[in-house]
User: Which sequence fits this backbone?
């Protein structure tokens, strides 16, 4: 996948409009990031990064050309492409900082934007958007033990890759295994989004990097700067009774969509669900389990049901994990 030269570790990035002036992005949830919302290291003296480069026709430090057109059509997200997504070849991807570190992957915040002054034929065409770049590590550097509980019954497209994955001692086998987890998440997001589940829009996949929609809100500071604030995890929320019931209905809908597609999330919990205002968004799907081919599937699905039901029940909602499990299993079969 394309790398970023001298990627900055910025504390705050301001949005820039097509005329080069500071402006607020038109779409909610798309803008630069606040340092206190990032996880991971950051320079104490990091300031504001001006996206205007000395030569606006070439990528600057921490930038690359948009990779939208450089990947095959099957590696891009499903149609229709959301109106907020920048798809022009002239756009730059600018790395803004790290959002989250995990055992098997790290999530980075990117801004995909047209350079200031780029002509646009359509005034409604988006000139910038925020994306999350989830980059999977190889087995040499990952801490997550990817057990057969998740991968049992999962196949790859080429038999030689399948054989390589079974040989964990070879460098090729380890590389293919890392790519497999990125592929699994992209395919699950693509199919789930197309079927109406509440998941981030999967923009594209390039090797072990999955680009997806940034889920969050934007705030404007006293100086007019735009700050992107990631949506909180459900575990931090204390919703009202009405919102709690709405959250439950949204979650059951997404779990049902996954079940009808033949999937169980595999690691569903309030930590893998975002509360974006009144919208609930399920994230982290690399370990999706095949409900037909995987012999552990029933146990995994039941665990997902019990975990999420426990959170809702603790907040006063009358939910039954066994009834949910039976309903999802019936939809899957």
Assistant:
């Amino acid at each position: 996948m394309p790398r970023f030269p001298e990627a900055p570790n910025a504390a705050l990035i301001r949005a820039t409009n097509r005329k080069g002036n500071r402006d607020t992005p038109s779409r909610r949830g798309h803008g630069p990031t606040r340092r206190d919302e990032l996880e991971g290291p950051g320079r104490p003296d990091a300031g504001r990064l001006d996206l205007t480069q000395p030569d606006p026709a070439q990528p600057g430090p921490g930038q690359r050309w948009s990779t939208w057109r450089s990947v095959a059509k099957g590696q891009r997200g499903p149609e229709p492409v959301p109106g907020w997504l920048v798809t022009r070849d002239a756009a730059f991807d600018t790395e803004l900082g790290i959002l989250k570190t995990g055992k098997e992957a790290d999530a980075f915040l990117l801004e995909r934007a047209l350079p200031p002054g780029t002509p646009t034929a359509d005034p409604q065409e988006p000139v910038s958007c925020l994306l999350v770049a989830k980059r999977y590590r190889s087995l040499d550097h990952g801490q997550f033990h990817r057990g057969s509980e998740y991968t049992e019954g999962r196949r790859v497209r080429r038999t030689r890759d399948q054989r390589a994955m079974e040989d964990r001692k070879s460098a090729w086998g380890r590389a293919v295994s890392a790519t497999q987890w990125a592929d699994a998440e992209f395919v699950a997001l693509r199919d789930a989004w197309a079927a109406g589940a509440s998941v981030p829009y999967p923009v594209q996949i390039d090797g072990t990097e999955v680009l997806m929609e940034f889920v969050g809100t934007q705030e404007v500071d006293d100086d007019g700067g735009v700050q992107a604030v990631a949506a909180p995890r459900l575990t931090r929320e204390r919703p009202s009774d009405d919102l709690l019931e709405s959250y439950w209905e949204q979650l059951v809908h997404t779990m049902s969509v996954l079940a009808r597609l033949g999937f169980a999330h595999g690691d569903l919990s309030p930590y893998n669900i975002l509360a974006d205002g009144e919208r609930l968004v399920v994230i982290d799907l690399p370990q999706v389990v095949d409900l037909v081919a995987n012999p552990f599937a029933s146990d995994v699905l039941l665990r997902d049901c019990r975990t999420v039901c426990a959170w809702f029940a603790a907040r006063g909602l009358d939910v039954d994990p066994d009834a949910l499990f039976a309903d999802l299993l019936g939809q899957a079969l």
Remarks:
- The chain has two domains: 12-229, 231-332.
